[in-house]
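tool_call: predict_structure(chain=1)
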Amino acid sequence: MIYILQLVYVKEGQEKIFHQFEDVVMPMISKYNGQLLLRVRPDNDAVIEKSIESPYEIHLVQFDAEEDFISFGQDEERKRFLHLKDESVKSILLIKGTKL
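tool_result:
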């Protein structure tokens, strides 16, 4: 089991395009033995301390194996919509881990 944590930074004014990408891609996770565990849009009032920019969204996803995560990233249907991600996402901080 692997866990993927993403801090997603969206370009200002491109939120609607980002949502279009997410609407297509999020349902595909289960096709690759994955599960969206948490999707949060943090409010600035919820931040206690920080030394980085607050992300637009935080995603926590679980996959049965690293190969499943790789296959998800190589999905041909997903690739057809990557232009929406490219248009809307400024950057992503991706952290891979395991449960302790």
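agent: The chain has a mean pLDDT of 96. Proceeding to next step.
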